[in-house]
């Protein structure tokens, strides 16, 4: 009976007849479209038959594969694809099982064309959004098989490339189908990530192979791989980041890819730009942990990891910051300590030389650097953190090990000051007083008094970065200009916060500038940096009182060059040149004609007789006529009395101008306390002293104070304002 039914087409079930009719006699004719439309209509009308249609198509496909009738195999897969696209009913799950069975059959075949055909069908299926959930579907086989295809070693290079690309697209399809389906097996499990991620990295690495570098990515494999990897990482949530990143670290370890640096950096740039920004700190934490775990690896490996951390931190800073900033610095400080021990201990294993880790990657200043993306408040925190780690004699303990000694402390000081300079680049704040507290400035300025010329220069560069808020620093060159308008300096009116900052810290800044000029091992770059620093103070932070003090400081430097005979000839001439260039600058900024004229006259005389006392001469000539330095006097020097006279007529404090500047050795914090105590005594005197004593102290200005207080007294004796003597309490 069954045999008869099998032979008589009229007695066969309708769905089988409809399926058979879509296959032509000659497979080269392709799918019979009219009959395919009938089959599709039947499936939509009787959805309960879908599972049987799928099972029968699967049976035919298996038979055709076994008989090598590949034309009919392609027709069967095309029919399955069309049915999948058309049907979205509750019975679709049973049909999908048959479909996946057929795809699996094709992927298991040893023919590349069948593997690619099965992959294409799976990708189409992956893009379909199903209306019903599936509880028992598994994609483990597809993950394994597509990963194998990504590593294909087929002899023909063109076919090999096609198989690998099919594997990549297959993995992309698996990710799309499972990543957001809670009912599916968790694709983020290590057993799956350990297959998917290395397969993608293997293909991403293909353009690093020498014989492919010249060809480029002609076939698009690398581009496709990168898109797939970005899509995978972009779907990762908080709990999945670790499982996604760990295989990357293992792949770079196993294939020694840290040493090349460029591929490792590229991988983590893809990761950092692909994941959600609020999760980026998790990647940094894994990198830091991996760096610690590789404490016994080769120097080049650890250097590569540090470079990746540096690049990744730049990207992370544009997203979420959190505590990761300080964690990065803490880990790098550990490596710095090991590196110092390496340098001083003769290169013990497991330690990274300083020139390998820190010089090439951590302290360059790239465009859009890590520091450049930090907000101001966080930069201040980082600066305080780094400053707290720098060994300062008498203030902070050394960071190095007990075997490091003085040289170890010096190396750490230089490296951390370079790091601090990196953070200060582009630093801008409206309130210098809160952004640069005494706890930061005190230890920083203490380095300007050290004998080490490199350390002093770094500190000057840091101060310049902190004060320069209008990008003026590159405009200051140690030279004498007849017209400074060519510099196009950007200037704003000094704010109240700037005035308070200078009131508190100015004397400390002046003192360290003065003492820095007394150092015998200073070179041209030191004097250039000192000129830039003084110029920025004048442009960024100067009010009338500050201008007066800066002029006094410049004249004091001139006296230093004249009287300090122990200084080398070059230094004395360089200090003369610094003083001349700065007085030329500040005279033109004050726009007082008589002041400018006096400075110009002295400069002209020096150009004729003592050119080596000007910047253009001291840094160009060999200073053969040493005896002339000691004979500089009279009209070749800037006159403090003349300057005081010219500026006094323009409203500047002439009494203060004629007072020679003497650096205050007293600590600035103590100066502030003394100022507060002085103010307290003045207030107390006005509150408790008899009226006669107060009147005698105020003198002729008393009627004006009382008039201000709306006290009606007889008409006062009017005096010019410049002859009045005001009490300290009334002067700001």
Automatic annotation (TrEMBL):
Matching InterPro entries: ARM-type_fold, EFR3-like_ARM, EFR3_Homologs
Coiled coil: none
Pfam families attached to this UniProt entry: EFR3_ARM (PF21052)
GO cellular component, one term: plasma membrane
Gene Ontology BP terms: protein localization to plasma membrane
Domain of life: Eukaryota
Family label: Belongs to the EFR3 family.
The protein's name: EFR3 homolog Ba (S. cerevisiae)
Species of the source: Astyanax mexicanus
């Amino acid at each position: 009976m069954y045999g008869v039914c099998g032979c008589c087409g009229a007695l066969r079930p309708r769905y089988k007849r409809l399926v058979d009719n879509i296959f032509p006699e000659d497979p080269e004719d392709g799918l019979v479209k009219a009959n395919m439309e009938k089959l599709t209509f039947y499936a939509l009308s009787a959805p309960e038959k879908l599972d049987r249609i799928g099972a029968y198509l699967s049976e035919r496909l298996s038979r055709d594969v076994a008989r090598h009738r590949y034309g009919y195999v392609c027709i069967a897969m095309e029919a399955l694809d069309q049915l999948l696209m058309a049907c979205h009913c509750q019975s679709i799950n049973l049909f999908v099982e048959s479909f996946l069975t057929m795809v699996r059959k094709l992927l298991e075949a040893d023919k590349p064309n069948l593997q690619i055909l099965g992959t294409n069908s799976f990708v189409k299926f992956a893009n379909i959004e199903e209306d019903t959930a599936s509880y028992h579907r598994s994609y483990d086989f597809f993950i394994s098989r597509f990963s194998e295809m990504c590593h294909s070693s087929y002899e023909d290079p063109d076919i090999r490339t096609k198989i690998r690309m099919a594997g990549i697209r297959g993995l992309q399809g698996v990710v799309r189908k499972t990543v957001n389906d809670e009912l599916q097996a968790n694709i983020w499990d290590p057993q799956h990530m350990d297959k998917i991620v290395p397969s993608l990295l293997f293909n991403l690495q293909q353009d690093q192979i020498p014989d492919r570098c010249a060809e480029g990515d002609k076939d698009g494999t690398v581009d496709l791989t990168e898109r797939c990897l970005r899509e995978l990482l972009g779907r990762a949530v908080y709990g999945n980041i670790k499982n996604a990143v760990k295989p990357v670290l293992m792949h770079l370890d196993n294939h020694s890819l840290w040493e090349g640096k460029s591929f490792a950096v590229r991988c983590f740039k893809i990761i950092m730009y692909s994941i959600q920004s609020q999760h980026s700190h998790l990647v940094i934490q894994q990198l830091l942990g991996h760096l610690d775990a590789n404490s016994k690896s080769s120097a080049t490996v650890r250097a590569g990891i540090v470079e990746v951390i540096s690049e990744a931190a730049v990207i992370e800073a544009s997203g979420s910051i959190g505590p990761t900033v300080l964690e990065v610095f803490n880990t790098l400080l550990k490596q710095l300590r090991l590196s110092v021990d390496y340098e001083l201990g003769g290169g013990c294993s497991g330690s990274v030389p300083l020139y390998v880790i820190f010089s090439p990657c951590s302290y360059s200043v790239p465009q859009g650097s890590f520091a450049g993306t930090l907000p101001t408040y966080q930069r201040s925190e980082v600066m305080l953190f780094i400053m707290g780690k720098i060994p300062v004699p008498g203030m902070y303990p050394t960071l190095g090990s007990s075997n490091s000694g003085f040289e170890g402390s010096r190396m750490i000081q230089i490296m951390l000051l370079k790091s601090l300079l990196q953070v200060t680049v582009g630093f801008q704040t409206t309130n210098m007083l809160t952004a640069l507290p005494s706890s930061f400035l005190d230890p920083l300025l203490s380095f300007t008094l050290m004998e080490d010329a490199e350390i002093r220069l770094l500190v000057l560069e840091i101060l310049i970065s902190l004060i320069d808020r209008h990008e003026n620093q590159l405009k200051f060159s140690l030279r004498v200009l007849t017209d400074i308008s060519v510099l196009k300096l950007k200037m704003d009116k000094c704010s109240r916060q700037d005035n308070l900052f200078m009131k508190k810290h100015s004397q400390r800044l002046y003192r360290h500038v003065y003492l820095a000029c007394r150092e015998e091992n200073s070179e041209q770059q030191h004097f250039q940096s000192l000129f830039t620093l003084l110029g920025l103070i004048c442009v960024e932070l100067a009010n009338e009182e500050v201008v007066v003090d800066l002029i006094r400081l410049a004249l004091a430097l001139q006296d230093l060059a004249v009287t300090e005979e122990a200084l080398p000839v070059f230094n004395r001439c360089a200090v003369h040149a610094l003083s001349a260039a700065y007085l030329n600058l500040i005279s033109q900024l004050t726009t007082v004609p008589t002041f400018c004229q006096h400075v110009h006259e002295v400069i002209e005389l020096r150009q004729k007789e003592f050119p080596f006392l000007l910047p253009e001469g001291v840094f160009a000539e060999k200073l053969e006529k040493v005896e002339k330095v000691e004979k500089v006097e009279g009209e070749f020097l800037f006159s403090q009395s003349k300057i005081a006279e010219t500026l006094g007529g323009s409203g500047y404090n002439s009494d203060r101008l004629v007072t020679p500047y003497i650096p205050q050795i007293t600590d600035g914090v103590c100066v502030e306390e003394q100022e507060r105590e002085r103010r307290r005594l003045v207030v107390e005197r006005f509150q408790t002293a008899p009226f006669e004593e107060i009147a005698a102290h105020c003198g002729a200005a008393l009627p004006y104070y009382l008039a201000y207080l709306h006290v009606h007294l007889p008409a006062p004796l009017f005096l010019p304002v410049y002859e009045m003597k005001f009490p300290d309490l009334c002067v700001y």
